[in-house]
Each structure stands twice: as C-alpha cells, then as structure tokens.
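Could someone model pyridoxal-5'-phosphate with this protein?
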Amino acid sequence: MVQLTTSEFRSHFPLLTQRTYVNSCSQGALSTDVRAAMQQFLDSWNREGSPWEAWVGEVERLRSTFAALIGADADEVAVLPSASIGINAIASALMFNGPRRQVVMGRFEFPTMAQIWLAQRQRGAEILWVEPENGLLSVEAYARRIDERTLIVPATHVCFRNGHRTNIAALAALCQRQGAYLFLDDFQNTGTGPVDVRSLGIDFMVTGALKYLLGPSGVAFLYVRRDLIDRLVPTMTGWFGRLDPFAFNVDELDWSPAARRFESGTPMIPNVYGAQAGLKLLDAVGVETVECEVTSLTARLIAWADDAGVEVITPSEPTRRGPLVVLRSVDAATLVSRLAARGVIASSRDDGIRISFHGYNSQEDLDSVIASLEAESAMLKRSRVVRR
Ligand SMILES: Cc1ncc(COP(=O)(O)O)c(C=O)c1O
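Reply:
Sure, complex below.
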C-alpha cells in the first residue's frame, strides 16, 4: 500500500479545490477513488449482468477491511445498510422480562439510538436517562444510574449535536463491573483516530461509512463481541442472516455462527464498492495522521473562538472532544447559508454551528473558516466568560 502525505490525501478530493468543506460530521467529501469504485460497480453490472458471486465477495472484502480498522475479527462484524438496522437487530435479540430490564442512556445520543430503545418499552424495557452537568456527561453520572437492574448502556462516543466526547473505556469498565452491556455508537468518531474495540472493552458497536470513513450513505457496520454472537438470537432477520443464504431454505432458521446473523436482506452492492474505496484511502493516509491533523485544527479553532469571546458549546478539555467544534449562534441555520455563500460548507443543530474537520482539511481551510466567521461575527453568540 502506498502511504500518502496529507497534501497527497487532500488532492484526492476535487471538492476541496472549490469549497472550504468542514461538514464531515454530516457526510465525508467525495474522493476520486470512491467515484471510480462506484463506477467500477456500474461497469461490472453493465458487463456481466448479475455477477452476484463477485459482488458478495466485495461485501466480504469490506467486512475484513473494516474489522482490521477497529481491531476485530471479520466474523465479529455485520455489514448493514444503516446503524439503525444494527441497533434494532441487537435490541430484538434481548429480553426485557427479567430483573435486568433497564436501558441507561445519556442525553447526547443520536435520535435513532434513543428512539430504538424507547421502542423497546412495549417489550418491557425501562429507560433511565443520564443528565449532563455543566455540559459534560461524566462516568460518575452514569455510575449513579447503572446497577444490577441495567441490561444495556447505549452510548455515543462523540455527540453529533455538541461535539462532546464520552470516556468510553471508563464507561465500559463500569458496565463490566455491573454486568451490563455497553453499546457504542461510534459514528461521529470512527476514521478520526485509532479505534480498538478490544482495549475499549465494549460489547457492541455501530458506525457508518458516510462520514469520516469517506464512503457513501447506505453502508454501516455492527461489531459484536465474539462470545456474545451465538447467545443472541434476533427476531429481526432475513435470508442473509442464514448459515448459507443461497441454500434458499424456507423450512429452517439456521443461524450464521458469525455476526452475519444480524444481517437481513440483499447487500447494498454499489455502496459497498464505495465504502471499500473510502476505507482504503483512509488507510493510505493513516488514522493516526488524521487524528494529528484534526486535533490541531480543532484546538486552533477553539483557541480563536476563546480569544474572540465566541461561545463554544463543545467542551474545552481536549480529551472531552472529537473532530467536531460547535459554536453558539444567534441564528445557526441562517449562519450556515451565509457561510455557504462565502464558500464554507458547515451545518447546524439547534443554536449551534457545526464545524468538523477531517485529515483532508488544511490550515488554509481553517483560515477561511475563521475569516468567514469574523465577517459574520454578528451571527455568533458572545460568551460572558473568557475561557483562557
Ligand atoms: C452518532 C450518530 N449515530 C447514528 C447516525 C445515523 O444512523 P443511521 O445509519 O441509522 O442513519 C448518525 C448520523 O448522522 C450519527 O451521527
């Protein structure tokens, strides 16, 4: 594999010559590699009609590539069309009729995670919320909720709304002590630095290809810790969850012994081609390099905001944040349009303007973001306290 420098990596994204793109928390930029891979799928379809064997082989290749990225084995990974499908498959395999029926969740979850567990109330689940204190969700606050009645703790690594990073290793250790499962939502983190599911000590994890993994929408991954796989029997299933999908068996429900048992329908082949190319490109620059770039860009943006007296919603402590910086605005939706008119693509949630960095962003991008924010400074909320 050819190792890319950050500027070589950047040159794979034509969009970056046209726009200042700081919205990877929503969708990663399109690379020439992903475009070519998706074209390759179209060519194979056009040339061979229905090469299903080769296409299913691409799903297996993607499974292995992703597993290597997170320190798992390929048979601990399900390849799915969305994170929601993965969360639902696990929820459907759990029982909420014993003494352990509580789901303990922080307020920073992505809606799909919260909603899927809320939906389990009709199956007996009890939902307990962990509230943030001074903008932080601490492990101590989780500890006050998690006990011998806790079945599972769904937890987002980095919050899509405010950029807050939860200490997952500490939370996983707490869950382990209490005998509860930890289900990590790593969507806003995977691709921005090394992830090792074993050293984190988590039970389940979902993430998707479309943000920092540089792929298209329509590909997500579910990791299930090896010893849990055959203890969990989902009721949400389909023919791709079988031992051999191509046995076309209507009489028997034979479960794949691998995490593939959590898959259901026909794989999303065009997206799989794109996702594989995205992961390969990420590997060529290296997640460690991406982490270095992202850490330095976020720190410099926050330092600018603190100096300028702009209210930063994202925690200031470096270990409590990820690739996303959120600044408070008097009208975030309008600010997004005004920035777009200046060539800066960002996004908003509530009253926060979201600026997220990837390894392809440069100091020039940061300068352009800051210049545009200064030009629109009336749209930013001022903080009462100067943070440094
Ligand atoms: C933290 C997080 N979880 C989940 C999702 C999306 O899940 P799904 O693949 O089910 O649409 C997103 C998308 O923005 C997200 O930011």
